[in-house]
Amino acid sequence: MILTEKFEVHKSLNPKLWTSDNKLQNEVKLKLLEIVQQFVDNCEIPLNVSDVHLVGSNASYNYTAESDLDVHIISNFGLIDAPKEILQAAYNALKTKFNNDYDISVHGVPIELYVEDINSTTLSNGVYSMIEDKWIKFPKPITSIPEFDLTNRIKELNDEAEFAIKSNNSDNIENLINKLYLIRKNSLDVEGEYGEGNQLFKELRAEGTLDKLKTAYKTARSGELTLEKYLREDSRVNLISKSKRSQKGFERFKKRVKSRVANTVKQYNAIDMNKLFKQDILTVDVQVRGETDTYTVKISFGGFCELLHDQIESSGILNLKAVTRALVNGFNRNDVYIHCSCPDSQYRFSYWQTKNKVNSGEEENRPANITNPHDSLGTSCKHVLLVLSNESWLLKVASVIYNYINYMEKHYKKLYADFIYPAIYQKDYEEPVQLDMFDDDELATDSDTIDTSNRYAATKNQFKPGNDYRFKPGEDKNQIKLDAPPSAMDAQGDEEVPG
Q1: Where are the alpha helices (DSSP H) in 232-303?
Q2: Which strands make up the sheet holding 134-137, listed edge to edge?
Q3: Per the CB 3.0–4.6 Å rule, which of 311, 398, 446, 498 could disulfide with 257?
Q4: Do residues 293 and 258 touch, judged by C-beta distance below 8 A?
């Protein structure tokens, strides 16, 4: 087929972005760094920035009128205690939402953000560092471009796009958008800019398929959020907003950054698996280290199993990514119940949390007549606000649940077949199951069993020394402020990321 977005070869770089001596225009650089800073500031998962790279056709000679500017935020994933694939999936979801929510361009050139691990490799003819303000890899002249017959693949993906748009389901649409960008990324990583997958992506973009999907996503998501506004008065966002609307509540919200959530998988082993897989209600204890002591924030929300089923239906596989996305969606869309063991929560908020039916802990029926008589201090203490305002702890919870599912399938087949499989696949387990004399109707949900499931996962090489998932402590020597001048590359970025 003839490509709509034809590959063009130029003798010079795009004059909308570059100077005559092949330097990035200063106003372009400042605007791009402002966009990146906005993304980093709003990123709900810790993100340490080592550099920002420009890659793709607008960092080379094959740009067209439809070409976007690929901006890659380079981050050291090894500094965060979470599996690399889950971090990448989480960052992908956040950047997709950012790219979908904001129609950002510079001099008419659309911007596409991407978060890239510092240890990964991107095959691009040109790579420009915005922090150092110089070329890491100056683009070579282009002499020829390979051609592919993309007719069948274009039709298949357009059919998928039409189906996703008609579903009016934001998850279906978002999954397809992510799929198209993954096709492009994999092609760039393996074949470079002229690979078949990148050409396929460019054709779909030129035909308007991507724009249609992004428009449909915004429409579907707006409708869902409007519905949630009326049905879910106790959503995570509303609980935070109520606190920020009062002066004392806003002060607590600002102070949340002085506390830290637990950062190891083992610290999230207090999950009632019976309640999760039988009632579809997740209740998890999140340990928060405050300024004077460590407290327990109890978070509870429903709908996880149903959302996990949707993820499995969409992707065709149960993996950590599916579990993480289901948790994030449930945390953001469903009613959230809260409780904290700290004195501030006990004496000022527990009564109102009980009265307003958002208390996930023991009910408190003694009015706060002295400390908070009119429910005017917001919804919760700073420890709860810290947990509500970020999602990084969900990565640990996802690992615990995923490890538990695999462990139960391997070692407690009947319980897995009777309770876990039907909950997440929403159908009966069909294969024969051998009975055991110790089988009962209760899932083992004590901390020792959950610890054992995590150790079982470790024996399967998920967390062995030397692999990509293992936490590598240490300071990122390359981290600097985005707005620092090139000379600041010698400086250290030592500000700790909240959460």
Answers
A1: 236-245, 247-255, 273-279
A2: 105-106, 109-117, 69-75, 49-55, 127-129, 134-137
A3: 498
A4: no
